[in-house]
Amino acid sequence: MRVTRSLSIKLISLLPCAVIAVLAMSGAAASCNRNAVLKGVNIAGAEFNADQLPGILYKNYIYPNSAELDYFASIGANVIRLPFLWERIQPALFGDLDPAELQNIAATVASARSHGMCVILDVHDYGGYRGKAIGTSIVPASAFFNLWTRLAAKFPDTSATAFGLMNEPNKLSIGQWADLAQKTVNAIRKSGAKNLILVSGGRWSGVHDWEKQIGETSNADAFAHFQDPTQRTLIEVHQYADPYYSGTGQTCVPAAAFGKMFDDITRWAKTNNQQLFLGEFGVPPNQQCLEALDAILARIQDASVWRGWTYWAAGSWLGTYPLNIEPKNGTDMPQTGVLKKFLSK
């Protein structure tokens, strides 16, 4: 997207890093394994205030609280996508992962696991580090491999965590990102990690322009032959319903507009033996937009291609943000009624 933890989680965050892997594997069975269709929500907050680094927890950024996880589990969600910043988890390129941030993420994973929920670890940096694109002399590709092999070592439980390599990597060309993503998946697999991986399409990852050549290639061409030796990688796409397809504004295009759009990318996936995950989509709570939301979800019911979705977004700090589905005073937001229809399928 362009734009109070409970006592138990606070106690978890005080524990040493040595127990992180144990925390991530404790509790009830989670659902990240690829045979499950993952349906849930982005819970925003840990990626907030990227201009405040490292930032202060509860002042500049926040992680999901137990009440949020309780609520989304209760309506049928089995996954949350957890956006966070590369700069916070790894303050220096090639350096150690920050112990406090590791504990924050591990606590979220442990709490989600106790609700039977998968956590997608989403590096939410748009293809860069401190504003500089990956693949430059300042941020070499090897630094990105280093981040993910370190994260993979800390979160080895394939049922509890999936890896979202990079949100909307628009700082790179589509071709550059596809090449980097393939090499990163190769590095993760070489490290021995078997977790589910989600690879965003290039630029803003939009379904609406998947087959459009932008620069030297299109997402359709760049990802047609993407491979994972374990066959546990999904191609992540995003799609908003406003006229600019950007997740901004208060109006939406007619619901009928999403028919061909999603049929085309579904056909692309089948032709190229790929599977898809709708990592971000969301609408304001008016009738036309709710119809668009219903139309989007109706188009991704073929589980041979569509392996799940996470609505954008919820979060205790989102306030009056129009797409927010954090319940207010115990009342569901209008968008949640549409989501529940598909969570129950």
What does this structure look like?
It comes from Sulfuriferula plumbiphila. Pfam families: Cellulase. It is built from eleven helices and ten strands. It is of the alpha/beta class and 345 residues long. The strands form two sheets. Strands 1-2-3-6-7-8-9-10 form an eight-stranded parallel barrel. Strands 4-5 form a two-stranded antiparallel sheet. Helix 1 packs across helix 5, helix 6 crosses helix 7 and helix 10 packs parallel to helix 11.
Give the helix/strand layout.
Blueprint: H1 7-13, H2 20-24, E1 38-43, H3 66-74, E2 79-84, H4 86-89, H5 99-114, E3 118-123, E4 128-129, E5 132-133, H6 141-154, E6 161-164, H7 174-190, E7 197-200, H8 219-222, E8 233-238, H9 258-271, E9 276-280, H10 287-298, E10 306-314, H11 334-343
Parallel strand pairs: 1-2, 1-10, 2-3, 3-6, 6-7, 7-8, 8-9, 9-10
Antiparallel strand pairs: 4-5
Helix pairs in contact: 1-5, 6-7, 10-11
Domain Glycoside hydrolase family: 42-314
GO molecular function, one term: hydrolase activity, hydrolyzing O-glycosyl compounds
InterPro entries: GH (IPR017853), Glyco_hydro_5 (IPR001547)
